[in-house]
Every structure is written in structure tokens, then in C-alpha cells.
Amino acid sequence: MSKIPRAATVMLLRDIEGEPQLFLVRRTAKSAFAPDAYVFPGGVVDLADTLPALHARIDGAEPRETGALFRERRDDALPADVEHPGPLERASIIAAALRELFEESGILMAFPRENTAPPPTPRQREAWRAALRSGKSNFLDILESGDLLASGTSLALFSHWVTPPNEPRRYDTYFFMAIAPPNQDASADRSETHDGRWITARKALANYQRGTLNLVYPTIKHLERLVDCEDNSIAMRLALTKPVVTIQPTTHPDRGFVMPAHLENVW
After folding, report:
1. Side-chain half-sphere of 107: how many Cα atoms within 13 Å?
2. Distance in angstroms (rounded) separating the CA atoms of residues 259 and 266
3. What element of type H or E holds 257?
4. Is the pLDDT of residue 178 over 60?
5. Which fold has domain 6-263?
6. What is the domain partition of the chain in residue ranges?
């Protein structure tokens, strides 16, 4: 099997009552992947995400816990040319999800290791985010400087998608779901992403149909799965209990990406 870059994406929900609102960011026009499209915050696993010292600062990164979280299975009708991640890779994917979420949305899913210590201030989070974006610090540096534990247990695996072989750039991507802490505000990083916005799945799809919101196929399919969720608890329950079937779409010359009919809304 070829080695396709692992990636992680977080479908972030706003902590409010009523229909779930998700945070989307617009990729820069210069982006190699999905330029100018609205996507969920995320990116590829990098070398710093694989550090054992970083994994030790992630609550929920132990092999037994990640083995239960990464429950994806394969369907014979839709083969995928990727291997299941081992314990080290699973922890690295979780690290990438939390890091990319912080970098692209400003949401830091972490808490002080000592229960009596105060949480990071908005000014501290912004300084850490700037250092992360500039490359002056990595995610481990940030957690160590604040004596924080990153909250891997806040992530629920929603799906596993692999880019088709005929695409110029391929990614082996795990989609997670999480609820944003109530005391943090999400915003685009104004570098790789722009125009961060909270929006319901229903409104995002309606705007896409009107041609006012540029979405890519995986984002559309995930929004379709969430459109009937009446609140965050229902959305999170769906993420925690649904099957996770690895999806590597096939392509059609006229219809673009396609999925076997029996897998629609069951992945």
C-alpha cells in the first residue's frame, strides 16, 4: 500500500442551544488544497505531532483509548489503499487534530495539569497561536509552557475519508467532532485561512446551492449527515455511536466524486 499523508479535521460545534452551528474557514486562494473553499479546520500530521513527549501531554492518547476511538472498518464495495494506523500514528493524528484546531480556529482544547491552576487567558492563547503559526514554537512547547494537558478525550471520531487515486494531492483524513469551550472565541488565522464563520449545516448547504458558499465534496457530505441534528447532544451522539466506514470515493467523468448507493448516510 502506498503511504498517503495522514491528516486530521475537526468539525467544531458552538456551545449554544438549538440547531448545531459549525465553524468553517475559507482556504486561502493560494492553497494547494481546496483554494477559496470553506472547510473544517484541519491539516496534515507533521513530524512534531509524532513526539512521544507531546503524546504524554494529551489526555486520551493511550493505546487502549485510541484503539477504541479509531473504530473505522472497510467495505468491500469501496476499497481503500491505506493501512489502519498503529498506536503511535493514532496518537499523532489526535495531536494534529488538536494542533490544527488551535492554529486555524484559535480554539485551544487543553486544561491546566494542576486542578488549582488558572486556565490560560485570551492574551496567552493568542500569543501561543501566533508563535505556533510563525514556527517559533510547536504544540509541545505551548503545552509545556502553560503546564497544560491537551484534551484528546474531547474528540469524537466521526468519519475516515481517503482522497481518490486520480487526484493530484491525496490525504488519508480522519474527521473528528468536538464542542468548543464556552469561554473561547473561534477566528480564522488570516494566513492559511480567512473568513471564519459559524453556520448551521442547513444554511451552509442552502448557500452552496445558491452559489454563495464554495464547498468541496467531503464537506458537503458531512454537512448532509448533520442537517437533521436538532442540537449538539444529538450531533455528538451520532458521532459516538454511528459506524465509521472508510470512504475512498470513486470518480465519474460527468458526476465527479461518487459513492456506492448502499453507503450513503451509513459511513
Report:
1. 31
2. 11
3. strand 256-258
4. yes
5. Nucleoside Triphosphate Pyrophosphohydrolase (3.90.79)
6. 6-263
